[in-house]
Amino acid sequence: MELxxxxxxxxxxxxxxxxxxxxxxxxxxxxxxAPLESAVRLALLDALSEAATEITRDxxxxxxxxxxxxxxxxxxxxxxxxxxxxxxxxxxAAPPNPLPTPAEGEDEAxxxxxxxxxxxxxxxxxxxxxxxxxxxxxxxxxxAAAAVDTDNQQHRPDAPRRSGIATGGQRFTGWVx
Length: 177
Description:
Layout lengths: L3 H16 L3 H37 L3 E7 L2 E7 L3 H12 L25 H14 L3 H20 L5 E7 L2 E7 L1
């Protein structure tokens, strides 16, 4: 990428603005051109570096690096691994997984809710859904159903209680009445 065209455009705009101010302004603009060129180049490089950082954040695990050679920047793009592209393409082409069939007596209508997750937990949920081969929505529905079912079994008065005893690095579990 050549920065000269951008620097020259700014130099030209400065000359046009200085021409409106007369001979003194034009002379001042000519003296300021050299130091301004360095400042403009540095500002452009900072902007390009910031853009590369943002793109890398969205492209992870791939990356975009900004390198400087002969005072001119160039980008080096490292794409994510090929298997990730294949997985994403397959996921995009596959029809969305259907919702689990409601249990008997449950209303078949679905409702929409908003769920806010910390970034690290969202990433773990995405990974777990991918391992299970289901959508995030389906995985969350199954996790919620399992949690509710477990909670209901533990709070029933006639349900057997589960106990665990840990001894010597081993864990024994069983049902106790």
